Amino acid sequence: MKKLLLLFIMVFIFSCGNEKVLQLPEIDYSGITEIKDVSHAYLFYDETQPNHIDLNRKNLISTTNWLINVDKRLTLKQAIPKIKFLQDKKSNSSHKNKNAKNYFTCHDLNNNNLGFLEFTNVVYQNESLNDYSGVLSNLEDTTNSTAIAFEKNNTIVIASTVLKSIITETSKDSLSFYLKKCDTINGIIFLNFNEDLSFQSYIDFKYVTNKTDLKHAKISNKEFIFN
Fold this sequence. Notes:
- It is built from 5 helices and 12 strands.
- It has helices at 2-17, 76-91, 135-138, 175-181, 199-211; strands at 26-27, 38-45, 53-56, 65-70, 102-108, 113-118, 123-126, 145-150, 156-160, 165-169, 188-194, 218-226.
- Strands 1, 2, 3, 4, 5 and 6 form a 6-stranded mixed β-sheet that branches. A 6-stranded mixed β-sheet has the order 7-12-11-8-9-10, covered by helices on one side.
- Residues 1-10 have low confidence and may be disordered.
């Protein structure tokens, strides 16, 4: 608890000292509330310059767990290139710790404290997604594959060879239901995020996919950021 409280104070002092405010994304329940041996990076949003993003990474140590504090108001188009830059910096470092992980810092609403969402093995890829007519035929596994696209208006489009259909939903509450329907042996699920989504929306969708108890299918570590 003391370490978490200290982290709150450090973020507050850092923000005030530089006249910046970082709004952490909110998550209902993270499941991870304490991480030791950490370094911090900060991705700030500037409401006076909405197309600008400020990354502070001065105190990162490659052998530690990295806590990436991303302002929830940033879009994925703004945040993901910086996040990929940090991932590459760590993986290409001459000093490595195979046990060190990467986490997004969130506000855990259930505990009213800090919570963390791991993304160590996530590989972000850029890909255009103009329509869904060819999605089913382009999936890697022709019998047990599902592609889920999260649009900028928070609409969810599910193209699945398991369901043999393309489904459009307007509520993330139904996402777990469809994930379970696509939970087949050797199944793989690909997540696709519109680059105009806010980082808060990204965390919302990641939370639902992470908490869904899948018995057979695997969510791919490749995440596609489309325009």
